[in-house]
Amino acid sequence: MAQPNLEFLGVPREDEDLYRLLLRTGEAGPAQLALHQARMEEAKAPAEAAGTDPDASGRPGRPEPRAAETAAACRRIAELGLATEASGGALRPVPPAKAVERLVERRVVRLRDELEAAVAASGIVDSLLADRDAASAAVLADRGGSPIQHLEGMDEVRAAIDELTFFTRTESLTTNPPGVLSAQGIANSRAMDLRVLRRGIRMRTLMGAGALDDPPTLAYLRELVEKGAEIRISHQPLERMIICDRSAALTPIDPTHTARGAILTREPGLVAALVSLFERMWDTAQELPATGGGDSASEGWLPSGIERKILESLYVADKDESGARDLGISVRTYRKHVATLMQRLDATNRFQAALLARERGWL
């Protein structure tokens, strides 16, 4: 039975061979790995079959380690997430389960990018929007032209939120007055929120101060911030609302009993008034506290997980698009993180930011 391989996950056979060698040898540098490869080739087949020249005594010569090729392969497996760089340029193999998980994530990201590009080229969203707008026009006609719809019960509200989120193209504005999210609420929201952020849509969320005292909520909010969301905490009363593309807004029928349902409006004047109210609440709110605590100038500040990955990508990604794709975030989010890191590090360019990060021991 043939040995299974990683080619179906986009790993060339020679790179997989090097990773397997690294798993067997443990931590090793390119020169050591090249020597191991040469010895394996020597043991696998006679020197004549390997194409080596005999030495002066007429005996087959030892294969020369392919240092340049091995060094290039070492860089590739590090970029693929199969190895991490240790001190002195040596490589450590990433545990197999984690390595395969990373390869799957990269493959999913690339497949998603291909599908989203195909969607953009097909014009399917515009076609669906046309049907939606035609249906909305018919509904408005039945209501005598009223652009306001009453949604009874949470099932209708959730269906409306799903539709609004699907068709959102540029911006999503949301408030959560209590500030605390239940475990089920986080589970229900995660897929939708991350999908919106991957599409490069600007997400701004206002949370009540209760978020600061609830670790699960705080952890989830920081996860969203790492993916590009903008989140602020308000110590003032908030009005509950969801606004999409500044063209449609949801507000509760009864703010004290949200399960009753919601009002969906597309009336431009009302939506504009709600956007204005959101902006006023946003201006008086505070930024979500960073994980490390303190501002960029504090000595205790440390980069988050996504920021470390972005700093690492500055070494290998030649374009923002490829760096964002490898990390599974939008290009806008990637560039936002890069700009923030350059400011915190007081770097004049991206390469200098990566060097300064390495000097501080962050990489």
Question: Can you tag this structure with a few keywords?
Answer:
363 residues; alpha+beta; Arc Repressor Mutant, subunit A; Endonuclease, Chain A; 8-stranded mixed β-sheet; two-stranded antiparallel ribbon; 10 strands
Put the structure in a nutshell.
The chain has 363 residues and is an alpha+beta fold. It has helices spanning 13-25, 30-44, 67-79, 96-122, 124-142, 153-167, 183-198, 215-226, 268-284, 305-316, 320-327, 331-345, 350-359, and strands at 83-85, 91-93, 148-152, 171-176, 202-208, 230-234, 242-244, 248-252, 261-265, 286-287.
Helix/strand layout:
Blueprint: H1 13-25, H2 30-44, H3 67-79, E1 83-85, E2 91-93, H4 96-122, H5 124-142, E3 148-152, H6 153-167, E4 171-176, H7 183-198, E5 202-208, H8 215-226, E6 230-234, E7 242-244, E8 248-252, E9 261-265, H9 268-284, E10 286-287, H10 305-316, H11 320-327, H12 331-345, H13 350-359
Parallel strand pairs: 4-5, 5-6
Antiparallel strand pairs: 1-2, 3-9, 4-7, 6-10, 7-8, 8-9
Helix pairs in contact: 1-3, 2-3, 7-8, 10-13, 11-12, 12-13
Give a description of the structure:
With 363 residues, the chain is α+β, with helices and mostly antiparallel strands. The protein folds into three domains: 97 residues, Arc Repressor Mutant, subunit A (Orthogonal Bundle), CATH 1.10.10; 140 residues, Endonuclease Chain A (Endonuclease, Chain A), CATH 3.30.870.10; 55 residues, Winged helix-like DNA-binding domain superfamily/Winged helix DNA-binding domain (Arc Repressor Mutant, subunit A). Helix content is 53%, strand content 12%. The strands form two sheets. Strands 3-9-8-7-4-5-6-10 form an eight-stranded mixed beta sheet, sandwiched between helices. A two-stranded antiparallel ribbon has the order 1-2. Helix 12 crosses helix 13. It starts with 12 loop residues before the first helix and ends with a helix.
